[in-house]
Amino acid sequence: MEDYKYLFKVVLIGEAGVGKTCLVRRFTQGLFPPGQGATIGVDFMIKTVEINGEKIKIWDTAGQERFRSITQSYYHSANALILVYDVCSQLSFDSLPHWIHEIEKYANTKVLSYLVGNKIDQINRREIPEHIGKQFAKRYEMNFMETSAKEAENVDTLFLDIAMELTKLARQQELDTDKSPTFSAGTTTVVSNCSSCFRF
Amino acid sequence: MTGTDFPPTGIDFLPTEIDFPPTRIDFLSTGIDFPPTGIDFPPTGIDFPPTISVGGKSIPIVSQGCYFNNTINDDLDSLMENQSLLESKMSGLHKILPSLQILETDSKQLHGMVSFTSTLAENVSSKVRQLDLAKSRVTSAITRVEDVLDLKFCTDGVQTALQNEDYEKAASHVHRFRSLDENVLRMTTETDEGSTLDTSFRLLHEAEEKLRMIVSSKFDAAVHSGDLASIERFFKIFPLIGLHEEGLTKFGKFLSSQLSESSYKTLVLADNINYNDKQANVIYAETSTQLFEAIAKVVEIRQPLVETYYGHGRLFTLMKILQTECDRQSRKIIEKFRHKRDFDRVVQQVQQDSVFHRPNATEKFDPKVLDVLLSEMVLLNTRTELYLRFFRRRAVADIEASKLEEDKKKESVSIVDKFISNCDLSRLMQEIIGSYIMLEEHFMREMVLKAVAMDSTESSSQTSSMVDDTFYVVKKCTRRALSSSSVDGVCAMLNLACTVLEQDFREVLMSRVRKGFPYGFDLSQAYTMVQTSIQQGKIQSSDTEKEKTVFLVSLNNAEASCEYCKALKSSLEDEVRKLFLKCTEQSKAKLQTCLGDLGNVASRFKEVVDFGFSQLSSGAIKPRLKPLVDIFLSTSHNISEEDFTNYEANDPWVQNFIVQIDTMLANFKSTLSSGNYDTFVNHTTSEVTSQMEKAVMKTSFNRLGGLQFDKELRALVGYLSSVTTWTIRDKFARLTQMATILNLEKVNEILDYWGPNSGPLTWRLTPSEVRNVLSLRKSETEGIQNQDKTETKANKQKPPPHEKKRTPDMRVRPGTQEE
Ligand SMILES: Nc1nc2c(ncn2[C@@H]2O[C@H](COP(=O)(O)OP(=O)(O)OP(=O)(O)O)[C@@H](O)[C@H]2O)c(=O)[nH]1
Ligand SMILES: [Mg+2]
């Protein structure tokens, strides 16, 4: 039970063109793809995180409106959601409440959610100052991070942070379920080693 | 030495015998030291000029001078001896001198000859080079002459051909002329001849232009008059005059107009279709299928023509133009579809329903209408996917057959892929699939909620109707999604199926199970009533009874759901494997992952079953067993011989215990599904052993009481083994071991089975438990405390033979015990 391996589902969402695909490619392949085309439907990748050997399954969704119902179907089973906006686009920031509404509607209540402001390498074109993003994230009780897929800033940190948080949560949950009185609760006598074999 | 043959073979050139400089004459030879090393000159022994020191010391100087004189004389003598040797050597040198002079002359002569030869060779080779150059010039001159002749021939030919309206011939002349390098031809001509060449070129250029115009307008005219033969005729001429793109574009436009015409006709037919027609429900999918088939047919027919006259690698140009028309026509069809099927209103309504969560909205659609609509949508998409796959296959095959370099080919293929995924048709279908998912989810959820709402229990079934109904709907919806051929659509529907099963269905089961299994008055009667009420098909007894039934049925439902879920997963897996055989690895992995989630849902149902059994255990099994075990507790196991025989005749508790358990099991057997019944027996057995273990620890035994308990336990194990399909002995291992201890003739016999003597026996009891059990033996308690080994050995008695035989009962197969 010691080196228990986890498989987490992480889903990236957010408006078209904010850089979701670039963030994933940077993390999984270590590159910034030139001329990245819009995502069609949903892409997915699996990456093993080096810390505890846990795996994270990353679903990169399309931001374009016509893929919305495909995208939404992934919320429910997500362990973590990364909501991305573009710090150089007020428009992408303004759409955040709408996305948060979707999260509240479709996602699991226990989902770990992150707000990520991407493209911070474009210093001169920035429209959303860091503190505004941070404040917004705080209001909705989300973790916050600013990244640049292009300059590889904070990208690994983001995903590793998520993996670590999720491992922590999963361990916690495991402890809770072990404590909770499931059906083996009846055996209040000396718990012989054999009792586990009754749990077929 | 002056022989004519060269190089002279008679003599060694630079003969090796005469070393040059000759080594035989030791000139400055090391034999004679020069200056001779024998004498020191000026001698180092004395100062020279000798210094005469003052003060009576002159005598030693003189004597030293004499000594010095003698040495010089000796040295001179030896030098004189060498004189003759030196002289003979000198005379030898004199004799050699003339031959050295000859050598020098010969060498000079040789040098002369060698350089002459080399010049000669160089001359020859340069001549050859010149000849070569001249030859190649002659060849190119001939080609050029031919070219010029051809040019003149073309010039004349083009004119005649144009006059005769023989455009094929004219085009072939132009094609020939286009293959000539005009600049080179112009450069190599003399000025006076240049004027005629110029004229030729001018004429040919003019002819080319003229031909282009003629072919172009003739083609248009042919299109206009619908003259298919001429269209094809001029289509073949375009590539000869370098107008590949224009030819393909013009031809493509012509074909497009034909497609547009036929598509219009089918759309009109579709609009006027009779509602009774069996295709009426899918007519727009059929209409677009006809469009796709028409395009496929066009490609099929024209591909050989394009390949022959335009070469490989150009089909895509034509297909792109056809696709533009296809996009236009598809949009028209989809618009009609939307309009006729009231699509936008349906979508809007469903969206509102999901936003406002109106479970009792009056304006609900007839699910049948939705069902029909959904089927047409998936058909639309699957036909489109099929067509787009055809499109890609043809375009890529043509590129692969072309003469392009490998990386160019790859680039072209990726252009094709990009074109397909961005074409209007693809986007239209992405929208359709997006709406389809939303509507299908709505349909699925509504139907599942309906199944739950209309849940009923048939007497013949241990589960209620909502399980079969729900899984029927989920299977129907996911299979319909599969038939859409859209990987993302399938994945989304699989995700949503999981969500609906977990949220809308499992939650219902869980909430019912969570209420627990109620217990109150006479239980055995209650079970019978549950049974009869179920058998009568309706529930008319008290609320408690109703609750019990609901609980047990829900437990069965959860168990069945778990199995159905697994079955659904594997059947969908099979279908996916067949239907998506040819899609990319990435898509397959996506599908596989989403299918895997269905397996997780199965284990979520299992959790409900497990939770239900924990409820059942505390609600039914435990309270039922408690009074039975109490009877055991009130039965003395501290008995006399007389009691023992009496017990034999009138069983104090175990027979009743067995009968009661049997009744309980029998009652549940009819109500629980077979899987759940097995689990129930399992739980009962666990509860029996655990309660009995506790009870035993509270009872005191004497030797005969131990024997009595052993008998009772055997009866119990025998009964429970008869009602289960698996071996039960393992569960009773601890109790059996307790009985063995209690049944020992003397307590210290335990040492025959303990520690190093345990042999193949694996103890399930800890040492302290063994000690505790031993302490239950009334009379022997003191004895064991003062026990020591020698006493044990001394008092050791052979157990009665029937007890010896019993030991294997205590044995547990090695390995079954966990660490
Ligand atoms: N300067 C800069 N540009 C970026 C960065 N990340 C992404 N981009 C650019 O933003 C554009 C869109 O990036 P994508 O990753 O395709 O965006 P997306 O969110 O996946 O878009 P959809 O798939 O349509 O939802 C591309 O042109 C990227 O080159 C970044 O960190 N810095
Ligand atoms: Mg993307």
Automatic annotation (TrEMBL), chain A:
Pfam families: Ras. Its EC number is 3.6.5.2. GO terms for cellular component: autophagosome membrane; cytoplasmic vesicle; Golgi apparatus; lysosome. It is an enzyme of class 3 (hydrolase). Its cofactor is Mg(2+). InterPro entries: P-loop_NTPase (IPR027417), Small_GTP-bd (IPR005225), Small_GTPase (IPR001806). It catalyses: GTP + H2O = GDP + phosphate + H(+). SUPFAM superfamilies: P-loop containing nucleoside triphosphate hydrolases. It is a lipid-anchor. It comes from the Eukaryota. GO terms for molecular function: G protein activity; GTP binding; metal ion binding. It is found in: Cytoplasmic vesicle, Autophagosome membrane; Golgi apparatus, cis-Golgi network; Golgi apparatus, trans-Golgi network membrane; Lysosome. PROSITE patterns: RAB, RAS. Keywords: Cytoplasm, Cytoplasmic vesicle, Golgi apparatus, GTP-binding, Hydrolase, Lipoprotein, Lysosome, Magnesium, Membrane, Metal-binding, Methylation, Nucleotide-binding, Prenylation. Belongs to the small GTPase superfamily. Rab family. The small GTPases Rab are key regulators of intracellular membrane trafficking, from the formation of transport vesicles to their fusion with membranes. Rabs cycle between an inactive GDP-bound form and an active GTP-bound form that is able to recruit to membranes different sets of downstream effectors directly responsible for vesicle formation, movement, tethering and fusion. RAB30 is required for maintaining the structural integrity of the Golgi apparatus, possibly by mediating interactions with cytoplasmic scaffolding proteins. This is Ras-related protein Rab-30. It comes from Pinctada imbricata (Atlantic pearl-oyster). The lineage of its organism: Eukaryota, Metazoa, Spiralia, Lophotrochozoa, Mollusca.
Automatic annotation (TrEMBL), chain B:
It comes from Pinctada imbricata. This is Conserved oligomeric Golgi complex subunit 4. It holds the Pfam family COG4_N. Component of the conserved oligomeric Golgi complex which is composed of eight different subunits and is required for normal Golgi morphology and localization. Keywords: Golgi apparatus, Membrane, Protein transport, Transport. The lineage of its organism: Eukaryota, Metazoa, Spiralia, Lophotrochozoa, Mollusca. GO terms for biological process: Golgi organization; protein transport; retrograde vesicle-mediated transport, Golgi to endoplasmic reticulum. Residues 788-812 have a biased composition (Basic and acidic residues). It is a peripheral membrane protein. Residues 776-819 are annotated as: Disordered. GO terms for cellular component: Golgi membrane; Golgi transport complex.
